[in-house]
Amino acid sequence: MSTPYHEILQGEPLLRPSPPSPGERHERICHRLHALIHASIDGLRSTQQLQPRDPVRLADRVTLRPDLALLTTATGKLWLVAEIIDGHDHHVDTVVKKQIYEDHRIPRLWMIDPRYDNVEVYHAGPYGLSLKGILAGRELLSDSLLPEFQVSMNALFA
pTM (2 decimals)? Predict the structure, then answer.
């Protein structure tokens, strides 16, 4: 995305990001992830994939624009979010938005970090988001709720 956009975090508008951020590599990773997810859910009627950074309203005072968002078609509820961390503005993604996703009990969260070429995988549990793993190198990102999807970290960050 080449232009800044707004998110609303706890009722406060936040302008994000200004060029040169998020940067070309961020956008390549986002495009690659979207293409892989799209191919894996093709024909799957239970899941809807939003466009990169489409607004997602979680509450009256919370509208986020995740890099990747999957919704349950029947209910319109968000069930998987991927945030590609911006090295110039990482606090919002790694702390603020992660807490919002936890507060709203989003079932799956992938924190994709191009700074370290890794992905933190979180699943919602009875006590909030639980870190299931940190993937890097040749390890595969996959999810039982997306049986046709998998990508190695090397391929995602290439």
Answer: 0.87
What is the DSSP pairing of strand 108-113 with strand 118-125?
Answer: antiparallel
Distance, C-alpha 45 to centroid of its chain: 21
CATH number corresponding to 5-156: 3.90.1570.10
> Does the pLDDT value for residue 13 go beyond 80?
no
Tokens at residue 119, please?
């992905």
Phi-psi region of 14 (alpha: psi -120 to 50; beta: other; left: phi over 0): beta
DSSP-derived 3-state class of residue 29 = helix
**Of residues 2, 7, 20, 135, the one with CA closest to residue 86:** 20
Token pair in block for residue 86: 């911006």
Q: What whole-number percentage of the chain has pLDDT above 70?
A: 85
* pLDDT value, residue 92: 73
